[in-house]
Amino acid sequence: QVQLVESGGGLVQAGGPLRLSCAASGRTFLRHGMGWFRQAPGKEREFVAAITWSGDNTYYADFVKGRFTISRDNAKNTVYLQMNRLKPEDTAVYYCARGKVTYSNSYYYTEGGYNYWGQGTQVTVSS
To answer: Cα angle vertex 19, ends 13, 24, to 5°?
Structure first.
């Protein structure tokens, strides 16, 4: 059974940085692409960023391009989301997810492309 555990959330002032981590259990982490999603109160969960299994390709939602960076360390079974220049509208619960397909160079921006999810970590950006 795969487990994903997010950490690094918290309260930050607008304009500040925050780094989220997602640690995965199991030995197959490096075969799968990973994604970050978020869900704000009263809104549906939305795609934020994705990275392919090799880490060679990354993809971002338009609203985070230039501010957020997704990366992974396959030796540590961990994927990261570095968030800079945070805005109050970035306030949400952030989830990491593991892609269904192994060794894919495609990215998936819908929830259907992922089959394991973490419990989420709260990010609150104050104005």
So the answer is: 145
Instruction: For residue 45, give the amino acid letter.
Output: R
* Calpha distance 40→46 (Å, rounded): 9
Tally helices (H) and strands (E) across the chain.
Answer: 0, 11
Q: Per-residue pLDDT averaged across 11-35, rounded? A: 95
Q: How confident is the model at residue 74 (pLDDT cuts 50, 70, 90)?
A: very high
**How far from 108 is each of 45, 51, 67, 84, 91, CA to CA, in Å?**
14, 9, 20, 23, 23
Distance between CA atoms of residues 71 and 80, nearest Å: 5
Q: Region 70-96: what's the mean pLDDT?
A: 97
CA 71 to chain centroid, in Å, comes to 9
- List beta partners, residue 62: none
Residue 41's pLDDT band (boundaries 50, 70, 90)? very high
Percent of the chain that is helix, strand, coil (3-state, to 5):
10, 50, 40
